[in-house]
Amino acid sequence: MKRVFWLVFLIVGFSILIRLFYLEKLPGEWFGDISNVHEYEMQVINGQWPFYFFQSPGPLYHYLIAPIVILYKDHGYVTYKVASVIVSLIGLMGIYLFTKEITNKKTALMTVLTASVSFWFLIWSRLGNSQIVIPAISSFMAYFLVRYIKRNHLPDLLLGAFVASLGWYTYPQTFLFPIVYLLIIVVSLAAFYILGKSRINPLRTLLHFILVTFVLVILTIPFVQIVKNQPGNFGPQGYVGKKVLLGGSLISAETIEKLKTNLIKTVRMLHIRGDETFRVNVSGHPQIDKISGMLFFLGIIYFFRTKKYLWLFLTLFFLFVLILPSILPAIPKGEIPSSSRTIAVIPFVFVLVGAGLSEVYFWVKKILPKKYLTEVLVTGLFVYLVFANLRLYFVDYTKGLPDKNLGPGRIIAAYIDKLPSNYSVNFSSCCWGEAGQPEHKGVVYNLTKERQLFDWNRLIKSCQEVGHYPAVVVVGPDRYSDTEIFEKCALGTKVDSIYSEDGRLVSYIVNIPSD
Asked: How far apart are CA 156 and CA 136, in angstroms?
């Protein structure tokens, strides 16, 4: 028991450590999605009670992290990265509980170990974006579902229904959760009954099913109201609608061909070619490393060897069904495969990876005469897995970020934060770096001190347009001639050159005193 305690302590500690290490600077770029989270969050914290979809994200994540943002406010981008770290740990807890229910404690610990270091999950854990809540929802939904199937207890069923219904308020790809929940209840209970694994009272189960259906319908009503209030977003040409709706006949040859192509690309993403988006992946790299990829298939063998056929079916069913929203024909082909739209399957991918590691332990233990040799070998395999994933994240991923993770918005904001709060912030240029960074919001939302910002969301070209003195004017490194214009605004004006730690010129800052 004491050994298990220390093992859990080490797993939790290590998971937290790799999520917090170098968090302030990696990733460095505040991009548009983080601005969306911040603006929604400010409405929540200011008591406006927003309840709508901001493009794709719904209200759930923003209310969930509100206490974290309030407690850790005034840290710029780091605030939202810390929030996503905490939510990722909730997801790891859900993965552990689900895996323990369908396997055992040892396999569950191995699963959490592999999931916690996975660069796919690690990227989202540190990014600060709202998709990180999805694995937490899918894992807890599966956990309560398994508990109900095994015990036939109504509270588990209703808790699972509540968690599944959160999908209505999260992302378009999670709208499927409540439907999947009902479907799996029927299929799994039928399988359990046929296999003779559960003493199911048909009448009681029918009453439970009617009740949970009623609860799911009730929990859908607020979502229906959101759709009514946002016809532009959910309509055929809306941000959500045009990606969710098929936009044509489901049985047309073209639609079927697109579905087939999208499905193949999505299935290949784990082992062959993953998401091309540099912010959420090492561009094009498979979503899991090679060692995890081999363990994934060994995990299937584990379930066969231990005769856990129903739980293997359930895991594979989740894997298949939860990727369906990511293969819809309406989604542009350049966005497939998608790390974000398939993030719900992370718990089920790593259940198999963790089970695969457990399978390796089982067979090595049978072959080697000494137990400590088995532990040394399996530990060595895991250490290599950790090294491969951390290298992918802290080295390869970093190199693929804009300007090799320069993060100019953070650096400029740090300079401005050193000035008195009566300085206004102005821009004469923006978006000069790779991927259009830094945006105005990437600077202003990174500030940790309140100040007179005035009309900062525009470019100025003369002293007359400066909102208020004293002031700073942010000038791109390729626009030095602009600094000469603003040097004439007042006596004592100076131009500072801002450099990164590695000596790269980030921008010029024109510091204009009061008249």
From this structure: 17
